[in-house]
Write a structure and sequence with these properties.
The complex is a heterodimer of chains A (111) and B (113). Chain A has 111 residues and is an all-beta fold. Chain A contains no helices and eleven strands. Chain A has strands spanning 5-7, 10-14, 19-24, 31-37, 43-50, 55-58, 61-66, 71-76, 85-93, 98-101, 105-110. In chain A, the strands form two sheets. In chain A, strands 2, 4, 5, 9, 10 and 11 form a six-stranded mixed beta sheet that branches. Chain A is globular, with a radius of gyration of 13 Å. Helix content of chain B is 0%, strand content 50%. Chain B is built from no helices and eleven strands. In chain B, strands 2, 4, 5, 6, 9, 10 and 11 form a seven-stranded mixed beta sheet that branches. Chain B is globular, with a radius of gyration of 13 Å. The chains are: A mainly beta (111), B mainly beta (113).
């Protein structure tokens, strides 16, 4: 079963605009991770945020985590055509010992 | 640093045939994972190894799928016999430990006709 649910399922924006993707989950977690997948490729890890953290930055990426609402968001600022990809959130819980992925958000950035 | 290697990259077989996938994880990574990713969905964990022991195979269809990790390094995933619904991308990943970031291979795209 999928733990995380991403919203929206698909997003299309112009180059230079910001893109925001949301992830909701159901059970308690130890950390939440975001991954990117370009078409026909494997997944690439973007950022990991622990349950005791509220916000984390990495370059043009900003991730927030609200454990009271069981939700996270990924913000990509000043998007580029190369950011076109699918983005997945994944939650890790020491109770299950495994990472569970959501269905993903497909982002298209138009040049 | 070399990444996770997988082979083959593509495989086309007919239903009821058998197929095997190979994965070489990043050196020193104790945890190895096999995922199945159906088009338009997120990866679904099939099996998770810690060194050469299985720690989770709850979603592995054991009547047709098998996996092993020899000497705690390379791993193979086998399907026998294949069904149409097995058409998917099979991803191998590895990590230092289960809570850390995972590093993925390029995947094997399987088509069952």
């Amino acid at each position: 079963s999928q733990q995380g649910e991403e919203d929206p399922q698909a997003l299309s924006i112009q180059e230079g605009e910001n893109a925001t993707m949301n992830c909701s989950y159901k059970t308690s977690i130890n950390n939440l991770q975001w991954y990117r997948q370009n078409s026909g490729r494997g997944l690439v890890h973007l950022i990991l945020i622990r349950s005791n953290e509220r916000e984390k930055h990495s370059g043009r990426l900003r991730v927030t985590l609200d454990t009271s609402k069981k939700s996270s968001s990924l913000l990509i600022t000043a998007s580029r055509a190369a950011d076109t990809a699918s983005y997945f959130c994944a939650t890790f819980s020491s109770n299950t010992g495994k990472l569970i992925f959501g269905q993903g958000t497909t982002l298209q950035v138009k040049p | 640093e070399a990444g996770v290697a997988q082979s083959p990259r593509y495989k086309i077989i007919e239903k009821r045939q058998s197929v095997a996938f190979w994965c070489n994880p990043i050196s020193g990574h104790a945890t190895l994972y096999w995922y199945q990713q159906i088009l338009g969905q997120g990866p679904k964990l099939l099996i998770q190894f810690q060194n050469n022991g299985v720690v989770d195979d709850s979603q592995l269809p054991k009547d047709r799928f098998s996996a092993e990790r020899l000497k705690g390094v390379d791993s193979t995933l086998k399907i026998q016999p294949a069904k149409l619904e097995d058409s998917a991308v099979y991803l191998c990943a590895s990590s230092l430990d289960r809570a850390n970031e995972q590093f993925f291979g390029p995947g094997t795209r399987l088509t069952v006709l």
